[in-house]
Amino acid sequence: xxxxxxxxxxxxxxxxxxxxxxxxxxxxxxxxxFLCAGMDLVLQSHPxxxxxxxxxxxxxxxxxxxxxxxxxxGKLYRGxxxxxxxxxxxxxxxxxxxxxxxxxxxxxxxxxxxxxxxLKHHNHPNLVKLVGCxxxxxxxxxxxxxxxxxxxxxxxDKDEINWQQTVNIALQFARLxxxxxxxxxxxxxxxxxHIMIDKECNPILFDLSMLTGGFFGDVPNGSIWGSPGYIDPxxxxxxxxxxxxxxxxxxxxxxxxGALLLSLIGKKAFNPExxxxxxxxCWAKKEFKPDCSLVHKKLQDDxxxxxxxxxxxxxxxxxxxxxxxxxxxxxxxxxxxxxKRQIKVGxx
Length: 348
Fold this sequence. Notes:
Layout: H1 8-19, E1 40-41, E2 48-49, H2 52-58, E3 67-71, E4 74-82, E5 90-98, H3 105-121, E6 122-123, E7 130-135, E8 140-144, E9 150-151, H4 152-158, H5 163-182, E10 185-186, E11 195-197, E12 203-205, E13 212-213, H6 233-242, H7 250-266, H8 280-287, H9 297-300, H10 307-320, H11 331-339
Parallel strand pairs: 2-7
Antiparallel strand pairs: 1-6, 3-4, 4-5, 5-8, 7-8, 9-11, 10-13, 11-12
């Protein structure tokens, strides 16, 4: 158990002890492979090709009532498509329309192809399942096999996630990141905007537009893209100092995960369009004190909430935000830490 003097340094010690791993301050991924241990290789059939007219029909003309949310590189819609068989039955799907005023059509098409290629070959319970795509001159879209409750961002805004679900989402997403990192992938745009929550309240990562590593290769030179409110601030200063050399590393994803964890426990989903809104990491750095909880009061009032667990997870998030990347934990340590604090179904 943690004592009353808990802080990021102590959390690092606990992470090492509970994960059974040695914390290496010069930790570098060495497994640059096509297959990742723990992630199933799925040599799916070629993704189905859709036309713009088919997708208009599926979303009732991209109607406002079918709009789920805006993402970093487009918009997310609910839709219905007909099965290939003769039954005429419709299937609930989610469509991501790719658009961005700062990206050329060529860049967006490249990002779409990256995402489709990855999803075609990989399967994980917390990765979205690909149905198909559209690559017409007028429309770029990917179609996913999911009918979600909503995005994590929207559910945080609606205040519809309890404590058990909060810990479960944090743990499941950590497991996904651990497996991606183990195969040398970087997500690079971790954000509640890019995670859907399914009807069993499982987190599903659906935006892989900035994925690098593995068989996709290194981060493009000079690339500082990230999700506003969840990007490691050292990336900006390091990018300016390093010029064309990319400062991205696995520890940047760790920082983003820490900011995401703070959004979860503090019910603070950052909206870049709200100029007066404080980013979760900035808020936490100002408010955090050793052995304190940054868990939202409504979550603290949850019957399943445990104060020590709240303090532990707060300190874990702060550990992920450590200024020096080598002082941040790795995802395996985070997973082991959260597994010891998850609320089992039988406990509810």
